[in-house]
TrEMBL record:
Keywords: DNA-binding. It comes from Lentilactobacillus fungorum. This is Transcriptional regulator. The keyword DNA-binding applies. Signal peptide: none annotated. It comes from the Bacteria. The keyword DNA-binding applies. It holds the Pfam family HTH_3.
Amino acid sequence: MKKNFGDSISNKVYEYRVLARMSQKELAEKVGVTKQTIFVMEKGNYIPSLLLAFRIADFFKVDVADIFAYLKGNDENDR
């Protein structure tokens, strides 16, 4: 049976994008994804690949941990 850890990733993509005065479309073009990908990522409904996370961090010239944070959940099978 597959374990459900409940882990997630939070992000500050919206904050960095707004500070850079960019549209979702502009950021998407810079990092090679669609506007929809940026939209759902900012809403917390999409966890990017490591490659995309590093592309976004590189674009803003910050460490990936400045934009993305690991939120550890609980393993429901360990109760």
